[in-house]
């Protein structure tokens, strides 16, 4: 899965000289939390809702409420935006975009096609993908277990489920330690007790099993 397949497009953008108050109104109207800042078709920054909410002129200690409101009304996006923008291309694997967001601690990445912004990929998009990967809206038996990290173990597990007439509807591998991997999967076509009996000879340890 590539970023271009799951990005939000067309992307909502703001201009550098948009006032903070106007940008906030746009964010609330469109229900977004961040937007690329575009100046003459060129990406010059990115602004998040928190940047707008925490924006304030400095110093403010000696200002009257009228002076403060006046200065706030003149404050523009280019004064509060992030200038160094981390971007990705449309053909970036979705997991690479997720890694960048986690490593850089950012909530969204503008998606580029050459020098043009063609979309944005955000935490919300990744959460939706996680829901799909884990088949959250499908009924089944969900298992979290430890599986030996040796060649053929996944094949043994899938063969056991197949022979019991079960069907994997989601599967994920997570942390690896002490020669084993933490796995989470969901199976349909079998009862809770049938799943327990089917996987017992294969997995090293079951941490959680439930019908969902």
Description:
- This protein has 212 residues and is α+β, with helices and mostly antiparallel strands.
- 33% of the residues lie in helices and 30% in strands.
- The strands form 3 sheets. A 4-stranded antiparallel β-sheet has the order 7-8-6-9, with helices on one face. Strands 3-4-5 form a 3-stranded mixed β-sheet. A two-stranded antiparallel ribbon has the order 1-2.
- This is Putative signal transduction protein with CBS domains.
- It holds the Pfam family CBS.
- Residues 142-212 form the ACT domain.
- InterPro entries: ACT-like_dom_sf, ACT_dom, CBS_dom, CBS_dom_sf, CBS_domain-containing.
Q: Which structural traits does this protein have?
A:
212 residues, alpha+beta, CBS-domain, Alpha-Beta Plaits, 2 domains, four-stranded antiparallel β-sheet, Putative signal transduction protein with CBS domains, ACT-like_dom_sf, CBS domain, ACT_dom
Radius of gyration equals 24 Å
Portion in beta strands: 25-35%
Order of helices and strands: HHEEHHEHEEHEHEEHE
In the CATH scheme, the class of the largest domain would be: Alpha Beta
Number of helices: 8
CATH superfamily placement of the largest domain = CBS-domain
Biggest sheet details: 4 strands, antiparallel
Secondary structure category:
alpha+beta
């Amino acid at each position: 899965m590539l970023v271009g397949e799951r990005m939000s497009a067309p992307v909502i953008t703001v201009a550098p000289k948009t006032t903070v108050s106007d940008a906030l109104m746009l964010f609330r109207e469109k229900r977004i939390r961040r937007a690329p800042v575009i100046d003459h078709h060129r990406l010059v920054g990115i602004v998040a809702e928190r940047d707008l909410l925490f924006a304030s002129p400095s110093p403010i200690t000696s200002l009257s409420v009228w002076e403060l409101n006046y200065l706030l009304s003149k404050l523009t996006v280019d004064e509060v935006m992030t200038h160094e923008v981390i971007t990705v291309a449309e053909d970036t694997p979705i997991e690479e975009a997720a890694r960048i967001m986690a490593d850089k601690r950012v909530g969204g990445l503008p998606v580029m096609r050459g020098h043009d912004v063609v979309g944005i990929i955000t935490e919300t998009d990744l959460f939706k993908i996680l829901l799909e990967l884990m088949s959250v809206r499908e009924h089944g038996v969900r298992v979290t277990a430890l599986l030996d990290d040796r060649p053929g173990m996944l094949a043994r597990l899938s063969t056991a489920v197949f022979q019991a007439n079960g069907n994997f509807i989601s599967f994920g591998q997570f942390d690896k330690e002490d020669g084993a991997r933490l796995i989470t999967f969901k199976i349909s076509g079998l009862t809770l007790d049938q799943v327990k009996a089917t996987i017992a000879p294969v997995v090293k340890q079951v941490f959680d099993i439930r019908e969902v």
